[in-house]
Amino acid sequence: MSSSAFRTVPASAEVVIIGGGVMGASTAFHLAEAGVTNIVVVERDDLGRGSSGKPIGGVRAQFSDPLNIELGGRSLRAYQEFRHRPGADIRLDTVGYLFLLDSARQASDFEAGVRLQNGLGVPSRMIGPDEAQRLCPYLSTDGLVAAAYSPTDGHARPGLVVQGYARAAARAGVTIATHTPVSGLDTAGDRVVGVRTSHGRIACSTVICAAGAWSARIGEMAGVDLPVRPVKRQLAFTAPITPSAPRIPFTIDFSSTAYFHNSDDGLLLGLADPDQEDGFDTTWTPEWLELFRTVARHRAPALAGMETVGGWAGLYEVTPDRNALIGRSTELPNFLYAAGFSGHGFLQAPAVGEAVRDLYLERAPFTDISPLSADRFRHGADIRPEAHVV
Q: Does residue 5 have a pLDDT over 80?
């Protein structure tokens, strides 16, 4: 795959995709598969180094909003078939997702979500604390009211997904230019006509912004408001566990956002720091672990004292309502965007790649994605509801 740093980029392209993460790679693959030619992906770093850089990404269809359920469910099916299309092992592990609930209000909200999910073909169900503990022996049931479990959810490796999509796109003729930051967009009238990069200008017919946490900056270059802010998220890995850890679901303590699941020969531990300031800093800070340990002492005591061997910090790309921005700019009709996934981008990437392909081809996607237009924040009326945010 031609993902080495380019000295120059092609002088022109039909489509320029800005961002070489899972969203840009999925979009490039789906466009190329549909017969679109002369596609260039420009990426400021190596492929998959932004939000897609995390070592393991959850995949789920457990959401409270029907549109997110559809995007998650369709993507899950694509990940199950990924070995055949586009053709790569992504180490998908269907261990299920287990949401731990400690209040009657949470249980009620998740019950409503399960009804919606079941109506859309997702086999999720509400379970009691004892069954949750059987699924995940690390748990203390103290204070647990209920849990929500879906056996077809799980996790996979984002890096392998990015490479799988990118290699298939490259085989189909897509040019992938890494280490090629975008410095500006040229517009004429109501069109984007060029993308300026560190390795030259690309005249183009369409621009697709899939720049993750950097999408607001790309939008500004075109005069398009994409309200995305970067927020650091951190995780840690335990030392190898002997005897080996039981195979457990992707387990989330919903109140605290603490989560954990299997990772190679140990466990991966994560939690969203509520006091984390916005910014592009991705320095991993071991002190953050104490936040996780504090929650674990109550919810999963055995985890609180486990030895850890390093960790990782990456960026969430967060919108005001924690839902994605997918659509076509009203001001610049040849500027499309897929960004702001607020932690759900990896698990929605296959379906979103399809939807952006259909937007480009001006045909109806498999579901109506117009509610995810960035214009919703201008109108203020249709802020998307989504309760199942971690």
A: no
Per DSSP, the residues of 129-177 read HHHHHHH-TT---TT--EEEEETT-EEE-HHHHHHHHHHHHHHTT-EEE
353-372: pLDDT as tens digits: 999 999 999 999 999 999 99
28 in Cβ contact with 39 (< 8 Å):
yes
Q: Between the CA of residue 321 and those of 24, 66, 318, 381, what are the distances in Å?
A: 22, 15, 8, 12
C-alpha torsion angle, residues 135, 273, 290, 253 (rounded to 10): -20
* Reduced 3-state DSSP string for 251-316: EEECCCCEEEEEECCEEEEEECCCCCCECCCCCCCHHHHHHHHHHHHHHCHHHHCCCEEEEEEEEE
Give pLDDT tens digits for 220-235.
999 999 999 999 999 9
